[in-house]
Amino acid sequence: MRVLMVEDERVLADYVADGLRGENMTVDVAYDGTDALRRLARSDYDVVILDRGLPGVSGDQVCEELTREGGRTRVLMLTAAGGVRDRLQGFSLGADDYLPKPFDYSELLARVSALGRRTGTALPPVLRCGGLTLDTSRLRASRDGVPLALSPKEFAVLEVLMSAQGRVVSAEELLERAWDENADPFTSAVRVVMAKLRAKLGGPPVIETVLGIGYRI
């Protein structure tokens, strides 16, 4: 899952971003609305965590712009104003969920995970394909009942492939969904992670390379 954290309180923004990265999510951070719109224009996110009280371009304006363009990105609004009227206003702007400050991190994580499952075809939290099992909520993977010790990046790549349900996934899409915006599209990062992942999955091979197109399970 790829997430954009938009929050002008840098300590809070970095804290949440680091926590989500620890849950195998790919997270970019914007500290103001202008930067958020710039990132949204060039990258595809599953979920945007959006503070309403941003300096300059407000969170409300960002939400309105994102809603006007359509797409599959879900918005979780954060605000110090948590009254019913404030929540209703947030929903009217196009937000999918609303969480008042201060908030419990575990609740934010649960809400982000739930929104992420709504960005496309609904998928269960436990993905299965042949002998592979991927529990995205507990961050556990196994093959034929044997646990797999995957790195966060390997787990993220496997999740993208299994979520595709047999569709071929290009290297560009893997970079978009499993790496952050700092990933260099001209590096061999995908091939390196794919080689390590295949080695850990063992035989017989389950990841097929479709020459000139990408990978699929």
Automatic annotation (TrEMBL):
| Domain named OmpR/PhoB-type: residues | 124-217
Question: What Pfam families does this protein's entry cite?
Answer: Response_reg, Trans_reg_C
- InterPro entries given in the database record: CheY-like_superfamily, OmpR/PhoB-type_DNA-bd, Sig_transdc_resp-reg_receiver, WalR-like, WH-like_DNA-bd_sf
Q: Which residues carry this modification: 4-aspartylphosphate?
A: D51
Q: Which residues form the Response regulatory domain?
A: 2-116
Q: Which UniProt keywords apply?
A: DNA-binding, Phosphoprotein
Extract the DNA-binding region annotation as residue ranges.
124-217
- Name the record gives this protein: Response regulator transcription factor
Species of origin: Streptosporangium jomthongense
Its taxonomic placement starts with: Bacteria, Bacillati, Actinomycetota, Actinomycetes, Streptosporangiales
